[in-house]
Amino acid sequence: MPSNVIRPLPSGSEEALKHFQNLLKFETDCWDVHYAMHHNLQDFVLLDVRGIETAKKGYIKGAVFMPHATINEESLSAYPDDTVFIVYCAGPHCNATEKAAIRLARLGRPVKKMIGGVTGWLDEGFELSKDV
Questions:
Q1: What was the pLDDT predicted at 1?
Q2: N or C: which end of the chain has fewer CB atoms below 10 A?
Q3: C-alpha angle with apex 106: 81 to 120, nearest 5 degrees?
Q4: DSSP string of 1-43?
C-alpha cells in the first residue's frame, strides 16, 4: 500500500505539465518580483493589500499600498485597464491576496499573487522599508 505522501498517485506527466504551467498564470515569486524591480524590468504594479497598521511595520519599497477592502473602480482609476497587478500580503498564513485578487478579477483587471508575501520576501534575504 502506498504511503500518504504519494496517495493518491501523482498524475501523468502531461497533466502535471498543464497544472504547473497554469499555476504560473496565477502566481509569481518574491525573487522574480525583486529582480524585475531592481533591473528596470517592472511591467506590473506591486500592491501591498494588507491593513495599514501591519503595512506600517514594513513594506516592499516601490509597492503601492491598497488594502484589499479598498480595491474598487475608483481606487484603480489611475491605472490603464491592462495594468498587471501583483498582490502580496503577510505570507502563507494570510488570505488578503486572495481577497484582493478576487476584487481585481471581478473588475476585469489582470492579477497575480506573489507567493510567500512579506514572509517569503524576508526569507529570500530582501529588505523591507519602514519609511511612510
A1: 80
A2: N
A3: 85
A4: ---TTTPSPPPPHHHHHHHHHHHHHHEEEHHHHHHHHHTT---
- pLDDT tens track for 67-93: 999 999 999 999 999 999 999 999 999
Amino acid present at 93:
H
Place 132 in a pLDDT band, splitting at 50, 70 and 90: low
Closest by CA to 44, choosing from 126, 92, 101, 110, is: 110
Burial annotation 80-89 (CB, 10 A radius, 16+ → b, else e): eeeeebbbbb
- Consecutive H or E run containing 124: none
- The Cα–Cα gap between 46 and 22 comes to 21
Its pTM stands at 0.92
